[in-house]
Amino acid sequence: MPNKGKAVVAGGAGALGLSIARTLRTQGYETHVTAIDANEESRFKASPDVQGITCHIANFSDGASVDGLFRKVGAPLAAMVTTIGGFAAGPIASLSPEEIDRMSALNVKTTLLALKGAYPYLKQNPGGAGVVVVAARPAALGGPGMALYAATKAAVANIALSAAQEWLNDGITVNAILPSTMDTPGNRKSMPNADFSKWPKTEEVAEVVAFLVSEKARIISGAAIPVYGRA
User: Fold this and answer.
1) pTM: predicted TM-score of the whole model, two decimal places
2) Most exposed: 5, 49, 107, 112, by fewest CB within 10 Å?
3) What CATH number labels 5-227?
């Protein structure tokens, strides 16, 4: 199998991140994922089929931690995917300043610091590099009780659109994906009466991500791509 270079999946210990990491490894990338702390790192290492994937502890709300991660992985970097984020629902009238700050940090700050930290390493990759950030369907559609979540995920998508233009001459593609509710154990538990067959599988979303960071997709940059399944 050809070596496609190094790939970092920020938040790769989560359900989607783990599927993306497995897919990138299978396709020939030297794959690195991140966990927020030792407990999450232990859960990742106990997951099935993670052989050959390296896990690092990194806090993507902390610029020094992010810089340390990318120094450890090293250049050149062929691909970077960030799946880090948080969810909160509720009417605008009930939002607290603390919750607004928390969601902004989880979704917007982490994405900006991830791209900022990865950029010097991505631009050193021969033939260009690919970046994907994970937004969400409410970023495009909004919805009752979704104002805070939708706004922060719309910001995530817009970061990708801006970065794509900034990094055009560096040969770095940057795209966002907008998943609907995905078929994960956590989502099944929280919505037991839903029709799970309509939800996109994390493995299906991972295939989209792997294509977008690949050399075959170098013509695609600055897109916000829906991955809704039949939901």
Assistant:
1) 0.95
2) 49
3) 3.40.50.720
